[in-house]
Batch of 4 targets.
Target 1
Amino acid sequence: MKAETLNCPNCGASISSDAPQCRYCESKLATVSCPSCFGMMFIGSRHCPHCGAAAAQVEAAELSILKCPKCKRDMLPITLGGSAMRECESCGGLWLEVAAFEKLCADREQQSAVLGMASPMTAPQDPTKREVKVRYIPCPQCGQLMNRINFARCSGVIVDVCRGHGTWFDESELREIVEFIRAGGLELSRQKEKRELAFEREQLQREQFIASRTDARAFSFSDEDRLEGFSAARGLLKFLLE
């Protein structure tokens, strides 16, 4: 996962977003703090460096304790931006159950439409360049290996999904998905799917038309061959009788 550069709010030094603290003043880097885009921020920052939203205090959520599918440590149940989730303080990953993630996507798309936050889409990242080694991880709830899915089929963000229980986001992936939604990505995905369905329908109709023409020609040729056979038989019979 590619790390980003953040500025420490205390000393101003640049630091990688995957570092646990500032190497100069040792200020701690929060795992996830932005209630709007779920971006990472330094503890003490007032505004998100990714979207500019005001920082909010993370609250405890009434969720059962589950193990991180990567670190195998207990995840922390939290509520941020109205969304209940589980966070791994070790690797920075997030686990959202199905209903929570669906609500988050709907809310962010609605906010984008109302506030006019949609911006031109940037080219999606190549999923093959994001992670060299593919590793399938188990669902924290049922233990079955999850499917790796390109969110919305065109976002370029590959997430681990258990259809019955929820979605796992590696560090920064949830923020990337929120940015994708705010840029109109879900509508773009729906339009793309409609075009694909229309193309498939046209292909099917074309194949059915060609098949019907082929059947019609085959039937016509059979009748013609049969008539020619009758004519030849009559000619031969006439020749023999003469």
Target 2
Amino acid sequence: MLRGSVYSPFTLRAAIKRYDSTNPNYIDEIVKITKFNPERTIKSLNDKEFEMLWKAIEFVEKWRVGTEDFIEKWIISGVHKKKGVIVEYLVHKSPKDVWVTKEKAIQLAIEGRLHAVPVHLKHGTHYLRPEYKSKPFEIIV
């Protein structure tokens, strides 16, 4: 991102301010570590200097290597209704589809495991709504 067309023409001071305007001491910390003139442009840094810059940014931000857990997010591919009310959802889980109760589907959505938005009404009713710009569950084929 820093070497891209947006940030590379900026001075270090301007780039850091644009990146994080909430910390006025950010550039001072970077300059203290790198000894760079804050008025240098990012594109003027050679590879070694650029590496010093991003390592200083990582240090200031206390960046640490972490791990990432993959959480599969499932799709609703059908519904069962009783008297016009959805009572079950067909959830597409690799490698097969599984019917789950409305309550289970709501719980999956709350956990972030389902492409659906859980809705909680004031009087205690819960239901699922399709994600923004998605087809209604009733017309999914």
Target 3
Amino acid sequence: MPQGSWSEKRERQYEHIKSGVQQRGAGEDRAEEIAARTVNKDRARAGESRTASRTSTQDISSERRGGLRSHKGPGGPTRDQLYNEAKKRNIKGRSKMTKEQLARALGR
């Protein structure tokens, strides 16, 4: 869905974002939507579009936001996963421990 008014740089950016989103498991339509929105927001921030919303120009950039969120994961193992590992290691008192206590007992 690349636009005719986009520069070659924006076309490349669109394709790069689209392929990345698809590699993470999104469908074709969803990947196209995310890529187009990201490119359009970048164009607005750079002054390349006729109109731009306030959030497009004042909000944190899409790239920075993605970078801040990357490599965080869902928050580590669940309490049950920690409990099962503690059970395998025969840690005493594990049934009454919280997730944080289990993690500490396991040395995490």
Target 4
Amino acid sequence: MTDIKEFAERYVNIWNEPDAGRRGQTVHNLWQEDARYLARSIEAVGHEGVEGRVRTAYEKWVREKGNIFRLRDLDGHHDTIKLRWEMLPAAGGAVISVGFDFLVLGRDGRICTGYQFIEA
């Protein structure tokens, strides 16, 4: 397995990335071509779907509302990573939302399936 701390930091930071080209390249680096990203009301498939999901979240929560996402804690074993993240105002202040993502990695070390759960 790859260095999960570095992998998790790259994963969380993609949601804060203002440059669309960098976001797209990071999606290609972190996710398999036919990967699935699943949240309660969202299913994104493939690089295009994941890029769209990341773009939508960035535009709503970061660009429009001025928040950032950051890694809270993580654990992983046997080609899986469970990471908790939090969203808070970029200018500082109380945490607005907390969630965790459970990532299943393929043989190539990239995400084949990611599940998002919002805790608060």
